[in-house]
Amino acid sequence: MVWSSAPPAATAQQPGRGAGEGTPASAGEPGRRVLGVLAAAVALTPMVAPKGTHNLAPIDGLIALAVLVAFLWALRRRALVRLPYAVPVTGLVVVGFVAALASVSPLTGGVAMVQELFLFAWCAALVTVCRTPRALAFVLRAWALSATAWAGVLVLAVLAGVNRISGAEGGIGSRAQLFFDHPNMAGNYFMIGAFIVVAAGCPRRLWARILACALLLVAMFFTGSNAALLSLILAGVLAVFLHLRARAGMVKAIAVVTAVVGLLGVGWVEIGSPLVAAATQSDNPLLRYSVGRGERSAEGRSSLFAEQFELYQRGDLLGIGPAGTRDALGAETASAAKEAHNDYLGALVERGPLGALALAGLVGVVGARAVRTTRRPLSPRLAEAVPVPAALVGACAAFAFTALTHEVLHYRWLWILFAMVAALHLLLRQEESDGGAPTGELPPPHGGTVPLRGH
Fold it and tell me: Would you call the peptide bond into 106 cis, given omega within 30 degrees of 0 as the criterion?
């Protein structure tokens, strides 16, 4: 879906003139100030504490400013405002609002829907501005460098025992969380950051990228997040397969990935399983409450999911209302009154089958667009912006895996990732429609334009 501030006649590019050369069809390259505001909001994403009313965080003010700046820039440049994933997101929000109105706590559910609309606007703002390879590269590199810097802050804080910064509530050796809500959220951020470093090819030198990824993974280890570790392994294998398929062919990709999976299996039997058993008895709190708690955590999740599914079976087509799982379980004196801890099951329980279908649609659209960017090597200009697009697919897959055990739909960097995938997908489509020569403007996606006549 696309909005345009120009009349329909102005959207046609003049013959012989490229976009970005003053034609009404082109917004041109966004300026450094616009990109700077968006990059700052991306870079400061970890600032989610302290929490305010309705879970508002310090970063939300900067995100709101970035959204405003992006849309004002689009209006001034007569640019097309991109609304990626509009159909599934609309389904999620509409079903959510109806479910909230029919629930016992409409205010709680309504606030959750407003939060989703806010994050969708953030995603749309990023895609609207990242309409050229240069702009996309700028935001991606800002994300890669800032995530690495935050990882350095957490690692130094842990090593120095500065618990106020590391967030390790139990002191040295406990799980760190920086300024995130909990260690699993922090672990997810650093794990996704490693994929972004690879995707953006930033830092430029290989040795520097290796060090950046190592730092991010050390920070992830200090959070003690089993979900981040498992998602990293599964999504990493997928990213390697897609990268090799595009560059070396299907046969070599299958051969390499089969060998990698075999080595991982042998490593688990010979090394991993004994280490997990030892971790359960370890004197180190980080090992004992991360790797060592894997079996207990799985049992707890299984029990929680069974109780939630019972809620769904006793409910109706609308569900119990967004963000209503904790209160519903508490009212029934369940063994654990917690939030859903699973986005897929949470959508089914809280928004009914229609909500689950809308979420499945969102996952499907994101996945299809992400995988399409890896079918063949990108052109030199796009490859300069995103050297390893398979790493973006890996990041999406990592979120999909993590969503099985945690609720990630409200993670702010999830929607940044969605925006990067949509922007790259649109740039690739532009190349295909223009015969391989990207310009400053993106073609309208399926569905055409809705003109908004402004003066």
Answer: no
Q: What is the DSSP string of 130-185?
A: --SHHHHHHHHHHHHHHHHHHHHHHHHHHHHT-HHHH--TT-TTSPP-TTSSSHHH
Give CA–CA dist 175/285, Å, rounded. 8
Using an 8 Å Cβ cutoff, are 34 and 135 in contact? no
For residue 4, the cross-strand partners are 80, 451
Count CA atoms within 13 Å of residue 104 on its CB side: 8
Angle at 180 between CA 175 and CA 182, to 5 degrees: 45
pLDDT band at 246 (very low <50, low <70, confident <90, very high): confident
Q: Which of 237, 136, 154, 230 is nearest to 190 (CA)?
A: 154
Give the chain's end-to-end CA distance (angstroms, integer): 22
Give me the pLDDT at residue 116, please: 93
Bond into 50 cis (ω within 30): yes
- Quote the CA–CA distance of 89 and 229 in Å, as a whole number: 29
Query: Concatenated DSSP letters for 393-411?
Result: HHHHHHHHHHTTTS--TT-
321, 355 in Cβ contact below 8 A?
Answer: no
User: What is the average pLDDT value for the chain, to the nearest integer?
Assistant: 81
Is the pLDDT confidence value at 52 over 80?
no
Q: Which amino acid would we find at residue 104?
A: V
Cα torsion through 442, 426, 420, 230, rounded to 10: 180
Which residue is it, tokens 């470093």? 197
Residue type, 302: S
Average pLDDT, integer, range 212-216:
97
pLDDT score at 454: 33
Contact between 322 and 96 under an 8 Å Cβ cutoff? The reply is yes
Reduce the DSSP state of residue 311 to 3 states and report it. Answer: helix
Which of 29, 187, 135, 85 has its CA nearest to residue 415? 85
Whether the predicted pLDDT of 428 surpasses 70? yes
Of the pLDDT bands very low, low, confident and very high (cuts 50, 70, 90), residue 376 is confident
Per-residue pLDDT, 126: 97
**Whose structure tokens read 């300024």?**
179
Return the DSSP state at 438: -
Tell me the pLDDT band of 295, cut-offs 50, 70 and 90. low
CA distance 133 to 119: 23
Pairwise CA distance, residues 19 & 21, whole Å: 5
Alpha-carbon gap, residue 444 to 80, rounded angstroms: 8
Q: Could you give the CA distance from residue 40 to residue 372 in angstroms, rounded to a whole number? A: 29
Q: What share of the chain has pLDDT > 70, as a percent?
A: 74
